[in-house]
Design brief:
With about 1050 residues, the protein is of the alpha+beta class. The chain is built from nine helices and 67 strands. The strands form 17 sheets. Strands 15, 16, 17, 18 and 19 form a five-stranded antiparallel beta sheet that branches. β4 and β5 form a beta hairpin. The N terminus and C terminus are likely disordered.
């Protein structure tokens, strides 16, 4: 008994050292991907395109941690020097960031002021002030009653000695008057606030600076500004420069040395190394950049160069180097610096144009973090050279378009950063690339030709691109200048986001909207106007934008223009248009006559922007519209539908948040009455044609939604966000079909989309993939109650003859559950090996359950219909059918499926041979471990005088030598002990290589060389199996007799291994049960 106990414990200890799975399978045989959270949005990118950054900050002396606040994508943090970034402010009420600040005395104390202060035409509304005490892990909204509806915020200043004392500059509403403007101060960490500087309800605080080392002296810049849908009024009598000497409790307006008259935007800053030296940008008719040597009490003009501040309303920022009061970095269209206090300028290193924020490490002034319209840049040589940190997905998309093909491509137009086209998944046939330059807005695939894209980069600058050969042709409908002629004198007006639509059946039939609708039937070579003016054509609002100090003429404020065009999918002659001034028109005869219908909408406020129109894919008389009035300082959603071509309308806004504008609505082409609305903060869906709404979360962040597109064939949902790029929800059938009745049913297996065998294609840059066709068949099932426990849910997949292909294990969560089948049979039985014996070998060895086949990890199934049977313990099983299809991107030979069946038969035989090999390795390893343990235990007992096992020890040693000799012929971990790099014996390397080669056979039968190789390998394997079975039948039997005779523990050995008989019958017949 004592010996048995010792030996058993010893043997178990050896076997419990850990096991390494050794399934020996080809790389393309993918394992199932089971998500604990089914149906989550994926970020498609392209992150490398970049987006607008409004605030950047780092930690002095720490080159690893950075924060970036963005115009529409929230706050991001890097903990590895800018290589990777994490969204840390993505579920708060807004994603528009004005300022990010860290307490100098404790960088874990982080403040975020929302509402970008660079109020260009696409600026998003802010909602509050936020604080984190744990470096951005959690957030608390500070005094929401005061700040939540304050609008835009520009600056946060924190007392370097007392983090409880904080000042905040509130610019206020960008699009109208409000009285929550000015400079606010707290002395108790944000519990209570006092407004200490206020001018009027249309003048807010744009700049705030503290004298270094002296929190009693502060400077503030106040800005009189408002935006309208048709223009910017920048500057007025409310603007001014203010100074405080009592910690911001009281303020005095400073004018000494400044130009007389009205001011526009103001920028302020002190020199850290010379605290009495301050600088100011003051937009005025005369002068621009000023210097003070008495801490802001008086000023001297330095320069009026436009290079300092090319567009004052958009820039007006600079930073003084911490170690040199004469070295100043100017953030304008181009990033520049001066070493003589602003008198002369030099270009800094190359960064994206339009610069907004810059932080310099005071402990190392060579380290600079910079934010602009293209993203975040990092310099280690004081700005002479910069590195673009291109892994932050903060693209500001206007729209998204998908090509009409299974492995579809995407195009999107990005503010500031071109129009891009690229892949929806790794199976796409293209990489991300620029389709059109400038500020990309529309980039639309021709539905009937996936190689043709029509793109536009503001104000009608359209082009036709063949993404197959890269050829781009200008197709501008009408040449015009947006900066040298008054809008009211223009013959045709084109808005900043000029809409483009393409006929669903003719790639050369394209429409572009100005103030009229243009149509081309030859791909844009020539154009015809097919409408009258489809806007209000209010000359009083067709003005030069900019304000009383200087005009800002970029075309961004061109007004009375079309924003949306919608072609009816069911009637080629029905076209709807929507304008930026609220006009909605429709034609049912291809543009011969038009009817204005917006006046039929009851209680619709005037002058809203008809951002998007969606004609029902089921009925040309049914139309959905969103009217966006945030530029009228009205953030309510206005969503309507009509079923009679606009004669009558019904509001369907009830149930949507009433403080967020709605920008887009679409109807699902696969489910009548299933609607999705995009607002300034998120997504909502309705299953009942807009009667009720539910927020669509699924991992979707707070972000403005500018466009939504359904992909009919794949049931995918694409979302163009203005701050987080393209987000996509793969296969929304569960959303479409999970009605209240389905949710209440004990088990419902939902319809399964066809899975295409998409192998090949290019990998695209700019990443964030893992979406789209070819990712496997997604199996969704809904449970009304949770079913937990091992093997509670199984998913059996069988072929058309009822033969089992693989069995997957599913989750038993209440609600929606998901399992992915990659289209594979079971993989080989995995080997059980101690971890010290190596675990990968020959480049790959995915883990499986030791001693069992790995589900969905073997040969790929042939095209055809398969049955998916979901069984939940205690409930009747349910089934659905899924089809596997050939790759539709290119033609296949007529005998492709027959060839695939031949390959499958051979692959399944090879898999079974691999299983036999792994079972043999498991048996050898087990016997070796037991023999080693027994020898050690018996030797210990002999030495202690408790036993006499010399003969058994000798027999064990002899038997172990035979086992090791055979094992080394198959698997030799002694070559390299490291588990990740241990390589196999020559035989097993050949075996795995041949198995992998079979997986790469596509459209053809296995080559004669493959067949010959497998016959040779099978013969060699049979020889090894003969040796192994001989050990079991002879040596193991003899050893166990001797051990039993001497009262030693016997070996636990398995049965002899035989290969399955080869068969020439069809796969299904051969495997029929």
């Amino acid at each position: 008994m004592k010996l048995k106990s010792v030996l058993t414990a010893s043997a178990l200890a050896v076997l419990a050292l850990g096991v390494a799975a050794l399934p020996s399978q080809a790389q393309f045989f993918r394992r199932p991907n089971q998500n604990s959270k089914p149906m989550q949005f994926n970020d498609i990118g392209p992150a490398l395109a970049g987006g607008r950054v409004s605030s950047v900050v780092g930690i002095p002396g720490n080159p690893n941690i950075y924060y970036a606040g963005t115009a529409g994508g929230g706050v991001w943090k890097s903990s590895d020097g800018g290589n990777t970034w994490k969204a840390i402010f993505q579920h708060e009420p807004t994603s528009s960031i004005g300022a990010v600040a860290l307490a100098p005395s404790n960088p874990n104390l982080v403040w975020v002021a929302t509402g970008e202060p660079n109020i260009r035409n696409d600026v998003m509304v802010g909602h509050g002030l936020y604080f984190s005490s744990d470096a951005g892990t959690t957030w608390t909204e500070i005094d929401p009653q005061l700040f939540h509806n304050a609008g835009q915020m520009s600056k946060i200043v924190i007392n370097p000695h007392n983090p409880e004392e904080v000042w905040v500059a509130v610019l206020g509403h960008a699009f109208g008057p409000n009285d929550v403007r000015g400079v606010y101060k707290t002395t108790d960490g944000g519990k209570t606030w006092k407004r200490t500087l206020f001018v009027n309800d249309h003048t807010g605080a744009i700049a705030l600076a503290m004298q270094p080392g002296n929190p009693e002296v502060l400077l503030a810049g106040m800005w009189d500004v408002v935006r309208h849908p048709w223009g910017l009024e920048n500057g007025g009598p409310g603007s001014g420069l203010y100074r405080s000497t009592d910690g911001g409790d009281t303020w005095t307006r400073i004018t000494k040395g400044l130009d007389a008259g009205s001011y526009g935007r103001i920028g302020l800053g002190f020199a850290p190394s010379a605290p009495d030296t301050a600088y100011a940008i003051v937009q005025a008719k005369k002068g621009l950049f000023y210097k003070s040597t008495d801490a802001g009490l008086s000023w001297t003009p330095v320069s009026d160069s436009d290079n300092i501040d090319a567009r004052p309303f958009y820039f007006s920022r600079f930073v003084v180097a911490p170690n040199n009061p004469e070295k100043i970095y100017f953030l304008s269209t181009m990033l520049s610096f001066s070493t003589d206090g602003g008198k002369t300028l030099q270009r800094a290193g190359r960064v994206h144009p339009d610069n907004h924020s810059l932080w310099i490490d005071p402990d190392n002034p060579n380290r600079i973090l910079e934010g602009n319209d293209g993203g975040v840049y990092l310099s280690y040589d004081a700005g002479l050279h910069f590195r673009f940190l291109d892994t932050i997905p903060i693209e500001e998309d206007y729209m998204v378009s998908a090509s009409n093909e299974p492995a579809y491509n995407l195009c999107a137009g990005l503010q500031d950063n071109n129009a891009w086209c690229g892949p929806s998944s790794r199976n796409s046939t293209m990489s991300w690339s620029v389709a059109a330059g400038g500020d990309g807005e529309y980039a639309v695939f021709a539905p009937s030709d996936p190689k043709i894209v029509y793109a536009e980069s503001q104000n009608g600058s359209a082009s036709r691109i063949n993404i197959g050969n890269g050829l781009s042709t200008s197709i501008i409908p009408y040449e015009l200048g947006v900066s040298d002629i008054k809008q009211s004198d223009l013959k045709y007006r084109f808005g900043w986001t000029t809409p483009i639509e393409v006929s669903p059946t003719n790639a050369n039939s394209v429409y572009i909207g100005g103030n009229v609708l243009f149509h081309s039937t030859d791909g844009g070579y020539s154009w015809k106007v097919i409408s009258p003016d489809l806007t209000r054509n209010d000359k009083a609002k067709q003005v030069q934008s900019g304000g009383e100090i200087v005009n800002d003429l970029t075309g961004a404020e061109t007004y009375d223009t079309l924003l949306s065009i919608a072609l009816s999918p069911t009637d080629s002659r029905t076209i709807w248009t929507g304008a930026d001034d609220g006009v909605i028109e429709v034609t049912h005869n291809g543009g011969q006559t038009w009817t204005r219908v917006d006046s039929n909408i009851p209680d619709l406020p005037q002058w809203g922007r008809v951002q998007q129109i969606d004609v029902s894919p089921f009925d040309s008389n049914t139309c959905y519209v969103t009217v966006d009035r945030h530029m009228n300082d009205d953030n309510k959603p206005y969503v309507y539908k009509t079923n009679d071509s606009g004669k009558t309308w019904t509001s369907i806004s009830a149930g949507l948040p009433q403080d967020n504008s709605a920008r887009v609505i679409r109807e699902d082409p696969n489910e009548k009455g299933f609607l999705v609305v995009g607002t300034d903060t998120g997504l909502f869906y309705s299953r009942d044609d807009g009667s009720t709404w539910t927020q669509l979360k699924r991992g979707f962040p707070t972000v403005p939604v500018f466009d939504v597109q359904f992909v009919k064939k794949t049931h995918d949902l694409l979302v163009a966000t203005h701050g987080r790029g393209i987000l996509a929800l793969d296969d929304i059938i569960p959303l479409e079909k999970t009605t209240p009745a389905v949710a209440a049913a004990p088990l419902t297996v939902l319809p399964i989309l066809t899975d295409y065998d998409l192998r090949g294609g290019k990998l695209g840059g700019g990443g964030f993939f893992g979406f789209g066709g070819g990712s496997g068949a997604h199996i969704y099932y809904n449970l009304s109650e949770a079913h937990k426990g091992k093997n509670k849910v199984t998913i059996a997949i069988s072929d058309s003859h009822g033969n089992l292909v693989t069995t997957l294990t599913g989750t038993g969560n209440q609600g929606l559950n998901e399992v992915s089948w990659r289209g594979n049979y079971d993989g080989p039985v995995t080997a059980i090996l101690p971890r010290s014996s190596g675990g990968f070998g020959f480049f790959f060895r995915p883990r499986g359950t030791p001693g069992k086949p790995t589900p969905d990890a073997g040969p790929h199934a042939v095209p055809g219909a398969y049955t998916v049977k979901v069984t939940v313990a205690g409930l009747p099983a349910q089934s659905q059918t899924v089809r596997l299809e050939e790759d539709p991107r290119w033609p296949h030979p007529v005998d492709a499926i027959a060839n695939a069946e031949t390959t499958l038969r051979m692959s399944l035989a090879a898999r079974d041979q691999m299983s036999a090999l792994n079972q043999m390795l498991t048996g050898l390893q087990s016997m070796k471990s037991q023999l080693q343990a027994e020898q050690a235990s018996m030797k210990t007992l002999d030495e202690s005088g408790s036993g006499n096992y010399g003969g058994v020890i000798s027999a064990a040693k002899e038997f172990s030598g035979k086992v090791v000799t055979l094992e080394n012929a198959l698997y030799n971990p002694d070559g390299q002990k490291n588990e990740g790099t241990a390589f196999l014996s020559a035989f097993q390397q050949k075996f795995e290589s041949a198995y992998e080669d079979l997986g790469n056979v596509y459209d053809t039968a296995p080559r004669p060389t493959d067949v010959t190789l497998w016959h040779s390998l099978q013969a060699e394997l049979q020889d090894y199996l003969g040796q192994y079975n001989g050990l079991l039948r002879a040596d193991a039997v003899a050893y166990n007799r001797l051990a039993a005779k001497n009262h030693a523990i016997t070996l636990a050995v398995g049965e002899p291994i035989t290969l399955p008989a080869a068969s020439g019958r069809a796969v299904a017949a051969r495997r029929r049960k």
